[in-house]
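Assemble and predict.
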Amino acid sequence: MDKKLIGVDLGGTTIKFAILTAEGEIQQKWSIETNILDEGTHIVPDIISSINHHLKLYNMQPEQFIGIGMGSPGTVDLEAGTVIGAYNLNWKTLQQIKKEIEKGTSIRFAIDNDANVAALGERWKGAGENDNEVAFITLGTGVGGGLVSNGKLLHGVKAAGEVGHMIVKPNGYLCTCGNHGCLETYASATGIVRVARDFAEEFAGSSKLKQMLDDGQEITSKIVFELAKKNDLLGKRVVEQVCYYLGLACANLGNLLNPSYIVIGGGVSAAGEFLLKRVDKYFREFAFPVVEKTTTLKLAQLGNEAGVIGAASLALTFE
Amino acid sequence: MDKKLIGVDLGGTTIKFAILTAEGEIQQKWSIETNILDEGTHIVPDIISSINHHLKLYNMQPEQFIGIGMGSPGTVDLEAGTVIGAYNLNWKTLQQIKKEIEKGTSIRFAIDNDANVAALGERWKGAGENDNEVAFITLGTGVGGGLVSNGKLLHGVKAAGEVGHMIVKPNGYLCTCGNHGCLETYASATGIVRVARDFAEEFAGSSKLKQMLDDGQEITSKIVFELAKKNDLLGKRVVEQVCYYLGLACANLGNLLNPSYIVIGGGVSAAGEFLLKRVDKYFREFAFPVVEKTTTLKLAQLGNEAGVIGAASLALTFE
């Protein structure tokens, strides 16, 4: 029988698991809650026992697996298989993930950060069409990125792919990283709401979004996009601004890397073609002519499954 | 005897050649003029006869070489070994470089574009310290770039490394590429003069640079830097602006690729530490904290020889 892969997508609220074929077909999937109590010390033992439990359930042995791949928040050391500073997991100190999971499951283990792993997933089985040149941007609470070139993830010294921290407006909004004008401050879910609040102050026309903000109602990026789609004047202005900065960042990324595809995923990308069309307009305005002709912007296709699929693909190096 | 490499750096005025060891030590070098007459049809035959002539001179046989590597202007097709659209060589139609040179010399041949080859040279034997993560920016008549990550040049679909066409100021100066606000329009030799002319119009204080411009004297980027070093007020303002955009571009490049080194070369980099210090100041302002800590800006070290050395290294794949 062909050997299988296990993919693990470790998040702050759930841990997703999948068993896949070496071709990336999901055969089984399940998930458990992330227990971040006691400085996150339950997380790795929970992962180990959940994998072992399911192997028993499916009557499978460790020898039937090529390996386990995992995506994690925080700063990942690929070689050592460790994670540090994953604050949404309460992991403040160095976690020996690889060592513990290999010992606990008797299966080889590889790890990378969550944005990189999602990029691998979309590249392999999603919008990236298994191309060797794919950039992935995820628009969520923050803005993350994963870059594949020459068929491999780019890691740089430590932190390649910090698309969310490209400066799109010098002296712009203050970012959690300490800099000003990072893409994330405009194009993340929270950034979009920030732009809305900012623009609302000076907005004089008629707008439901303006009304809601003035009423103190809770606004989300989803609401902003929904109202913009219904022609809300303020909503449209906010979306235009957000897409302008996204288009500028995609163009500068394209001018450096000229990938076949820039894949846009994450919660905000649920706005779909409405978002993509506007980002593409500004991308075309700012991209170098050859890049404009050869790099295509696309929406992500795998949704939640990008993580487990991409994570699993990390283990293919053990083949 | 250990096999050797041949490096060829094809430029619009001269063609540089070198014979190197597989470790990148130059053992012989020479150059010939580039004859661009008759649509550049003499160039490839001239290269072949110059190589064959020097092999005879040094009493060497084709079998003693691992291969020939060449850097060329224009759009290079690596696989096919062809070049098109190298306008400073009068090459408007497709040139079958690899085919002709392999036939003419009986030595294997590899080619890439001139900026990439210079990047490989600086990475291998220059400021890049043979690191796997090196970005190279060349400030000349234009602004070019070459990016090495995971130890390999990034090509993207066609045109990765277009550092000169990163947008540093939306709606800024019009670039030859048709876009506005490309780095090249501010930080190339001609861009710097453009900034000087632009700033001079609104400059009211005392400045030799202002005087020279008003007198209609010919200004070069070298003069601008020399005067700035002598505390010329307008000169300093121009240099500050140029370094601001360079620092911003380096930071965004760093945020995406997080290389060990961003190496700055080309004619303008002759301004040395005076330039580097100011670019670094803005790089640090705009770089993501981890990138600021792990990516170092450096001046190029090989000067004119980067081309032949990097070109030669292309042939190492034939080993």
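The interface with chain B takes residues 133, 145, 147, 149-150, 152, 154-163, 165-167, 170, 177-179, 182, 248, 251-253, 255-260, 285-291, 294-295 of chain A (CB under 8 Å).
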